[in-house]
Write the structure tokens for this entry.
Amino acid sequence: MPIDRRIFLRTGLAAGAVLGLGAPALLGQAKPRVVVIGGGAGGATAARYIAKDSQGAIAVTLVEENERYQTCFHSNLYLGGFKAYDEIVHGYDALQKNHGVTLARARATQIDRDKKEVVLASGQRLPYDRLVVSPGIDLKYDSVPGWSQAAEEQMPHGWKPGRQTQLVKQRLDAVPNGGVIVMIAPPNPFRCPPGPYERASMFAHALKKAGKGEARIIILDPKESFSKQGVFQADWEKRYPGMIEWLGPKVHDGIKSVDPKTNTVVTGFETYKDCAFVNVIPGQMAGEIARSAGLAPAGGYCAIDPASMKSTADPAIFVLGDACIAGDMPKSAFSANSQAKVAAMVIRHELTNSRAFPARYVNTCWSLVDTDNAIKVGGRYEPKDGKIGATETFVSQPGESDALRKETQAENLGWYAGITADMFS
Ligand SMILES: Cc1cc2nc3c(=O)[nH]c(=O)nc-3n(C[C@H](O)[C@H](O)[C@H](O)COP(=O)(O)OP(=O)(O)OC[C@H]3O[C@@H](n4cnc5c(N)ncnc54)[C@H](O)[C@@H]3O)c2cc1C
């Protein structure tokens, strides 16, 4: 199912929402207020669609702590030398100018669910009729023995954007020919299931291109298997022979410790000393604001109603993207964007009585493996048995033609242009 920018936008516009609600409670009242926490794939899309489609009938405030959004999606292409850093950075100006979204450049520190107010770091309170929460993930700094927040400089994760992405690039560039990179992959559920393996491909590509084909990348995985495994491994064998080694938990017997001072990783079976670069990608959980508001259990993610993206803990709050439990949908920017359109439609229906449609979701995760060579996995989804369930899935196959892989990469680039326009234009 090739998806180019036009089709991507069209499916987005067609995605609707199921309601089962009575007459909108707020008709006839002064402009209803929607606050959105998090200006990423979920939050920026929701803010844009609610403001754009309600044509001024709803006051939308987007709370985002960073001035610019740096996408984790396609950060692996930056690491591989396929994109400049500037190409993965976006601003919020058009959301304000084109759609009248009010931007609150601040950290949200509390959600007062009783008063229906978001509290900002300054102490300012933003009242809401509906709240969208899309804060992404937080890292579990205690999930790898010996690693900590203090160690994220020396052993960067690159799983949150900005400085971390650039640190990973610096470490990669400094790897000598013959050097060993150890990547510690995260346990499920985590942001971007194919991400670590696309990243390993990009590491190998960049090293090979720099004449460092003797370098090795060892992936220590707590999982028995990973996304698109058969396709990735066949391609690694063909394109980067001897460079990437994946070890599952039965082979390495667990990560016993890491030492950031000496760049050492100890597993049940082996000690990797003097590594050129250790990339620790730790366990993950819903962003702090969602957990502290009681929308997720400690260390976990937020349960939602699959027909509306409403939190099961609070019908005035919608949780999108990586922070929510989205059934068969992976934690991806595409998923967050698709969920945002369902939530936007439900919110507009509830606040302005606009039409609503049954919830339908889509996702594709592309991964670049080598120049002009991408693979993909994805599907269509709808509410099923109390969760978001897959109704159709597809995945690339090992041994596909170069022409098909090139076409898949063209879709990948078209998708990035489409989704960033869908979030920020
Ligand atoms: C290496 C890598 C590669 C990836 N590649 C892809 C890909 O190819 N395709 C794909 O679809 N996905 C990809 N992803 C996944 C994608 O980046 C995430 O799934 C997506 O960003 C989730 O969107 P979100 O809205 O949940 O969170 P985010 O996009 O992380 O947005 C959250 C926003 O909330 C803000 N925020 C958080 N808390 C607060 C607060 N309290 N107050 C104010 N602001 C706050 C943050 O600053 C941030 O801007 C990749 C991820 C990684 C790490």
Notes: The two ends are 26 Å apart (CA to CA). The domain at 141-280 is CATH 3.50.50.60 (FAD/NAD(P)-binding domain). The longest helix spans residues 402-424. The pocket of flavin-adenine dinucleotide is lined by residues 37-43, 63-66, 69, 72-73, 75-76, 107-108, 134-136, 159, 191-192, 195, 199, 287, 289, 321-323, 331-334, 336, 365-366 (CB under 6 Å).
